[in-house]
Amino acid sequence: MNKLNVLLVAVVMVFATGFAKAQKIASVDVNAIFSAMPEAKALDQQLQNLQTAKTAELEKQGKSLQDLMKKYQEEAPKQTQAINEQRSQEVQKLQDNLQQVYAAAQKDIAEKREAGLAPLEKKINDAISKIAKAAGYEYVFDASTPALLYKAGIDATPAVRKELGL
């Protein structure tokens, strides 16, 4: 949302000046650059491995819970009301615990993703700034956002890729 606000402010500034002087505007496909970075590919693989491990752990706990529930259902007619209620509460606690483990796993994956993306975003932004200053661009728009409706200006994506060694 913040990128959209910055983009809209930049567009308003461009139109507000009335194009009194020639503007040097460029666009960069940040998504294409990001997907070409080896660090991004490594991060995706790490996140996929973490997701697989967490999923396997959750499936194992879920299977254990299902087996216990099946056992308790089969034994229920032979047990007293008090024992069945106790078992029902035990199953509910285990279900709640499983949901907490699932939420914790999702949170862990999201935090690792954010921590891994931050340096990559900084690296891309630094390269864009360097290229923009060197080429004298006044505005550089992200061509991968849906807010960019028309793109006929200079595409700085190749220069940024070159700067990053991609």
Automatic annotation (TrEMBL):
SUPFAM superfamilies documented for this protein: OmpH-like
Record keywords, A-Z: Coiled coil, Signal
GO molecular function, one term: unfolded protein binding
Coiled-coil regions listed: 40-115
Family: Belongs to the Skp family.
GO cellular component labels: cytosol
GO-annotated biological processes: protein stabilization
Protein's recorded name: Periplasmic chaperone for outer membrane proteins Skp
Lineage, opening ranks: Bacteria, Pseudomonadati, Bacteroidota, Flavobacteriia, Flavobacteriales
InterPro entries: Chaperone_Skp, Skp_dom_sf
Organism in which the protein naturally occurs: Epilithonimonas hungarica
Tagged with keyword Signal: yes
